[in-house]
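User: Teach me something about this protein's shape.
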Amino acid sequence: MPTTHHCDVAIVGGGLAGGLIALALAKKRPGCAVRLIEGSKRIGGNHLWSFFATDVAAADRWLVAPLISYGWSRYDVAFPAHRRTIRLPYYTIESERFGRVVRETLAEDALMMRRKVLAASSTAVVLADGDRIEAKGVIDCRGPGELGLLDLGWQKFYGREMALGDAHDLANPMIMDATVEQIDGYRFLYALPFAATRAFVEDTYYSDTPDFDIDASAARIDAWVAARGWQVERVTREEGGSLPVVMGGDFEGYWVSGGSKVAKAGARAGMFHPLTSYALPDAVKAAALVARASDLGGAALHELLHGFARKQWKRRGYYRMLAAMLFRAAEPGERYRILERFYRLDAGLIARFYAGQSSMVDRARILAGKPPVPVKRAMSAVMGKKR
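Assistant: First, the predicted structure itself:
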């Protein structure tokens, strides 16, 4: 017989955004009855989330600190004409650890796993099995809304975690190795040294389309690993996907497409850096906002999170313009030159860029001098013209 569950806050989707909100409420509002509803058997899915130390405000580090699996004091980048080590702490969260912390922190009845959601309103969630959840407020953290309302490029990737027969040669994370052949847009290899004989390597593309040949990408990872002399004993984990890179679009239309009066977070709310597709900084900020909110009712949560997402959209027009320059001012095989030039700039500027906190001086400095793309195309991209 169908059951009606009652709670203070119902969170739909147990990915990064939903899990962080649940954790924040459990830690800062222990008397708040939460339900975290996830359609699969795993909280957090099968992912790595990495971030720079400056991406998370000091006041919010309490939320991410227990989740960190690995940390390094510096990272490397490599381009055909430029190599550099940048002294900035870099961290990685594994979804397995993330899920374990969420399960251990939340009350037993707070987790509703393998439950398919049919519909969500600001105060109720209807499940496919007939159950219903009545809440003071609902936050929808499922996948993206109608992406067709946004002007997009794509960051697509395939990665492998590998157990090695001998120690690898990575001293630091390799955030971008763009010395590789440029295929299907801007391509680079990303590598994380988890232990002396364990590493994660990802083949990444800034491409015009989201479609992806995983077999070809896997072969390119194999070639990169072989060139470094690594002996792979086995692949222990794989992940892949396509993330939107936003050049423009209708924010309000996108918000409404995910439910007009329903509070949202994560990709469904457009809460990610338009150029890097980083979602963790916004997910942390949104979770902290909810935990501090005086009113957890559906209407108040909608106003709170819509206001945050709309403010971020307005603040990030500069990054959408840079994304348009990357995709529309440069030929696909020459896009790496933009990043190669960028990584010659001041380390503090680079850190503020990734955190989405570029100052006016930073913004001017990024655009100063002769651009590594045709000037006419650069101007057209700035004006929002499509090629």
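Now, about its shape. The two ends are 57 Å apart (CA to CA). Residues 317-382 form one domain. If you'd like, I can walk through any region in more detail.
User: That's plenty for now, thanks!
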